[in-house]
Amino acid sequence: MLSSLSIIISHILLLHLARKALKNSTKVSESVKDVLLCGICAFELGCVALEQGVIMEQYGLAIWAVSLILVVIWQVAGWDGVSPSPMGHILEGSTLGFLRVGFMLVGSLLSYRHMTTIWTAELTGLH
């Protein structure tokens, strides 16, 4: 379980730092920041959810439920109002909204590719 937790925590911390750096950047416009933040949050959600699947498979429902609650608390506290749900952006109907959705899709797909690479490294026998 330690390997799964370290994968989840390292992704959360590194992507939090990436979001903070992007938010503090003065070289990128606010609309571009917003689109990129949606993609980063979707990437983080994908990575964490995939690793939580390993926790569910190896350690059962109770441990998974606790990790799920902690991840949701993190998302509410640490994502500063960015939602991983594309529905609001789709209903907005603007070009910017559809760009956000596109970047969220790309972030989600990249998270699968990224986690597959991590699992292929076979850091433990659980993956």
Outline the fold blueprint.
Blueprint lengths: L1 H23 L5 H30 L1 H18 L8 H6 L2 H26 L7
Helix pairs in contact: 1-2, 2-3, 2-5
What structural category do the secondary elements indicate? mainly alpha
How would a textbook summarize the main sheet? none
Q: Residue share in helices?
A: over 70%
Cα end-to-end separation: 11 Å
The value of Rg in angstroms is 15 Å
Q: In total, how many beta strands?
A: 0
Key descriptive features of the protein:
127 residues, mainly alpha
Please tell me about this protein's structure.
- It is a single chain.
- The chain is mostly helical and 127 residues long.
- It has 5 helices and no strands.
- The N and C termini lie close together (11 Å).
